[in-house]
Write a structure and sequence with these properties.
The chain has helices at residues 6-17, 20-33, 45-60, 70-76, 97-108, 123-127, 141-159, 166-173, 176-198, 213-225, 264-277, 296-322; strands at 37-42, 65-69, 85-91, 112-117, 130-133, 203-208, 231-236, 253-258, 280-285. The chain has 337 residues and is an alpha/beta fold. Strand 6, helix 10 and strand 7 form a beta-alpha-beta unit. The strands form two sheets. The protein has a five-stranded parallel sheet with strand order 2-1-3-4-5, with helices on both faces. A four-stranded parallel sheet has the order 7-6-8-9, sandwiched between helices. The protein is built from twelve helices and nine strands. It is globular. It folds into two domains: 6-173, Rossmann fold; 180-322, 3-Layer(aba) Sandwich (Rossmann fold). Helix 1 crosses helix 9 (176-198) and helix 3 runs antiparallel to helix 10.
Length: 337
């Protein structure tokens, strides 16, 4: 595969699932302490990674779960938040200004904080009551965070007397790193074909729903816009027909991220429309990829992870075909703003 370091990827993802014992110890302690709700707080790609978990947890648990953008959360005086809230924050560097500010805000108000980060001895790890640390870089951070969150959040729900399948689910999550490499291998040709066809495309629509909506939001903003400087709009499939459809023409690039959860019919509706009105439709469907040994009922939860691992390959090929490094920034962490 183009510019893919298999050993590095496996080190990162196996490192994530290797935290299972530590995660389960943290869950035991916070459950014993007690909490009334869960806040998932981050910025940019980090909060986007939380959106699928907000969606999934609210479908399997009675514990209220809120995914919040860090900077807005600090300013908004959310009345659901209290010292009895359990807060999970994420920042790969551990230094994201808005996320660190949110961590300090939560700490001052007595909430219990779990920090997901890639480094010890950074502000987020130091502020959190519990720091879950797995070293990763931007290329594989999304997979690392999601694997950790599957073990963390689904165990929290399990300890609340819900999702009794957790032990079997966690065992299968721990087997995913090698399976995700296989997904990449199978999707490689399609990723290269997309990059060749769309390397000069000026505008994309990226559509998701349910637990793929966060991936649509983050891929449009954090990759196509931030890393490739391509004008892109992320659209929720349920809202596509309330305005955005009017911009679809026969040469409009529409990218659909189809998962396997209960919102799949929303994506199929957009697909039927796009097939009629554009010649530039790309469908990334998690159902097309085998996850050997994973129970059928668990696949719907894993859709955002499968989508993410496939999009990583598209990113690498776009970087190559467009001669535009994924590391170049004009403004982000380059100028004061």
């Amino acid at each position: 595969m183009l510019n893919f370091d298999r050993e590095k990827y496996l080190k990162v993802t196996r490192g994530a699932v290797g935290l299972r014992d530590e995660i389960e110890k943290v869950v035991e302690e916070v459950t014993e302490k007690g909490y009334t709700n869960i806040f998932l707080i981050g910025s940019g790609g980090a909060v986007a990674t939380f959106y699928p978990f907000e969606h999934m947890l609210n479908s399997i648990s009675t514990v209220p779960v809120y995914a919040e953008i860090a900077a807005e959360f600090v300013l908004s005086n959310n009345r659901q938040f209290s010292e009895k809230s359990l807060v999970i924050l994420s920042s790969l560097s551990g230094t994201t200004e808005e996320t660190v500010a949110a961590a300090k805000y939560c700490k001052e108000r007595g909430a219990t904080i779990i920090g997901l980060t890639g480094e010890y001895n950074k502000p987020l790890a130091n502020i959190a009551d519990y720091a879950l640390v797995n070293y990763a870089e931007n290329d594989f951070a999304g997979d690392s965070n999601q694997l950790i969150l599957f073990l963390l959040t689904f165990n929290l729900v399990h300890k609340n007397g819900e999702f009794p399948e957790y032990p079997e689910f966690a065992d299968q999550v721990q087997s995913l790193p090698d399976k995700l490499v296989k997904v990449k291998e199978v999707g490689e040709a399609k990723a290269e074909k997309f990059a060749l066809a769309y390397k000069d495309e000026a505008y994309h629509m990226v559509v998701g729903s349910g637990n793929t909506w966060g991936r649509a939001y983050s891929y449009a903003m954090c990759v196509l816009e931030e890393m490739q400087w391509i004008k892109t709009k992320s659209i929720h499939a349920a809202e596509f027909f309330h305005g955005t459809l009017e911009l679809v023409e026969e040469d409009t690039s529409v990218i659909l991220l189809k998962g396997e959860d209960d919102t799949r019919p929303l994506m199929e509706r957009v697909e039927r429309f796009a097939e009629k009105y554009t010649k530039k439709l790309t469908v990334i469907d998690t159902q097309d990829y085998e996850l050997a040994g994973i129970n059928e009922e668990f696949r719907k939860y894993l859709s955002p992870l499968v989508v993410n691992t496939l999009l990583q390959r598209i990113s690498v090929h776009l970087e190559d075909k467009r001669s535009h490094s994924l590391e170049i920034r004009r403004y982000y962490r380059t100028v004061a703003y």
